[in-house]
Automatic annotation (TrEMBL):
GO molecular function: hydrolase activity, acting on carbon-nitrogen (but not peptide) bonds
Protein name as catalogued: Imidazolonepropionase-like amidohydrolase
TM segment ranges: none
Native source species: Chitinophaga ginsengisoli
Keyword Signal: yes
Lineage: Bacteria, Pseudomonadati, Bacteroidota, Chitinophagia, Chitinophagales
SUPFAM superfamilies per UniProt: Composite domain of metallo-dependent hydrolases, Metallo-dependent hydrolases
Length: 430
């Protein structure tokens, strides 16, 4: 048995040694870059035809038409016929916290226990994940790394997807605390095998009351000048009450979301609904209470049998019309690569193409509190830029040819492309 195990480990090691990509973070931007003759989608609804954009030292320095050319040390990229976009931002992702869902040793996104606000997902973020490069190839340049498990599993952080380690990757640290509200929807019952026996409403009331009590005690603790003992869990939510952090409440149904609204009112904190499948039903309430929504998995079936079959596709347009701040998310990790295309679907169900782009760029940046640095192509913001030969939101025409994070040009190779080239070579395909 020992010999078999040793042989197996050796085989795995040899396979890994020959399968590693030679992809590493780009160096800091050197020369000024001048993009010309492109259709520039700013991200705030504005489109500049035959436009130009200049960035230097990682920052956008000018954007518009007929900009002065850079000096001799600059680089000019003629993008005639191409499109330029702000980098897409993926919220609510466990990217870098898991690699193979079925392999437990690669999963590091949850802790034991129900209330762990002091857990920081950022320090578990694995910059060597093979999945990261597949997202960059579709224009996704930043992600909100989010913990799971229990009711309050910890804090999420925004990372940029080109780094040696989590310290380099950190874009906004610990910007949100997450509360996974128990669902009021009973689990499915299988006759004769798995009957539903628990009281869903009672469990919902018990668990939400537990979180409410925790926040009340934390608020009282933080109002004291001195403490006999430091409570790390209470200290971890200090910034919630100063609005330096937001509380993301994961829920989908109207009654659940109304409880989330009550949390915002009682504690005077910034609340974001994560999920929000039925948010279109109470859009006016969310607008009145200044509560944003992250719509999860818009490519899905309706949550209720009474909903229109295309309800997940058109919810974004209904929130847009009501004036609710919202963005799109695909949750998970590898699925995030389809996020631009889901925005494209939303653009055929009521949104304009530029509104759909904002739903995965500027709106997301506003919700995550990073809109002063990214989310749109504006002077003074980070040069997080994507260049595509076609429409970034259309899977048929989107081909990302260049991408920049803070002015650094990325290597857009990835494991998928390498396997494609490998087997194309094997079978003599051109």
């Amino acid at each position: 048995m020992k010999r078999i195990i040793l042989t197996y480990i050796t085989a795995l090691s040899c396979t890994a040694a020959f399968a590693q990509e030679t992809i590493y973070p780009a160096p800091l931007q050197g020369k000024t870059v001048y993009l010309i003759n492109a259709t520039i989608h700013v991200g705030n609804g504005q489109v500049i035809e035959n436009g130009a954009l200049t960035f230097s030292n990682g920052k956008i320095t000018a954007i518009g038409n007929n900009l002065p050319a850079p000096g001799a040390d600059g680089t000019i990229m003629d993008l005639k016929g191409n499109h330029v976009y702000p980098g897409v931002i993926a919220p609510l992702s466990n990217l870098g916290l898991t690699e193979v869902e079925a392999v437990r040793s690669t999963n590091d996104f949850s802790e034991v226990g129900e209330i762990n606000p002091s857990v920081r997902s950022l320090v578990a973020y694995n910059t060597d994940s093979k999945v990261i490069n597949t997202l960059r190839s579709n224009g996704i340049l930043l992600a909100q790394v989010t913990p799971e498990g229990g009711m309050i599993p910890g804090s999420s952080s925004v990372v940029q997807l080109d780094a040696w380690n989590w310290e380099d990757a950190a874009y906004k640290k610990d910007g949100a605390i997450h509360f996974y509200m128990p669902s009021l929807l009973p689990p499915p019952s299988v006759p004769g095998r798995f009957p539903v026996t628990k009281d869903v409403a009672a469990e919902f009331a018990e668990k939400t009351a537990k979180v409410r009590t925790f926040l009340r005690e934390a608020k009282a603790y933080l109002q004291e000048d001195k403490h006999n003992e430091v409570n790390l869990k209470f200290e971890a939510v200090r910034k919630l009450f100063t609005k330096e952090q937001k509380l993301f409440i994961h829920c989908n149904f109207v009654k659940e979301m109304l409880v989330a609204v009550d949390f915002a009112k009682e504690f005077g904190i910034d609340v974001v609904i994560a999920g929000g499948a039925d948010s279109w039903m109470i859009a006016d309430v969310l607008k009145q209470n200044n509560i944003a929504v992250v719509l999860i998995q818009p490519h899905s079936l309706p949550v209720s049998q009474d909903d229109d079959v295309d309800q997940p596709y058109k919810t974004a347009a209904q929130l847009q019309q009501a004036g609710v701040l919202y963005c799109l998310s695909n949750e998970g990790f590898w699925q995030q690569r389809n996020l631009p295309f889901e925005a494209g679907t939303a653009s055929t169900y009521g949104l304009t193409k530029e509104q759909a782009l904002s739903a995965v760029t500027l709106n997301t940046a506003r919700i995550l509190g990073i809109d002063k640095s990214t989310g749109s192509l504006e002077t003074g913001k980070d040069a997080n830029i994507v260049v595509s030969t076609g429409d970034l939101l259309d899977m048929r025409s989107s081909v990302v040819t260049h991408a920049f994070i803070q002015g650094r040009e990325l290597n857009l190779d990835n494991k998928h492309k390498q396997l494609y080239e490998r087997y194309k070579h094997k079978y003599g395909l051109k």
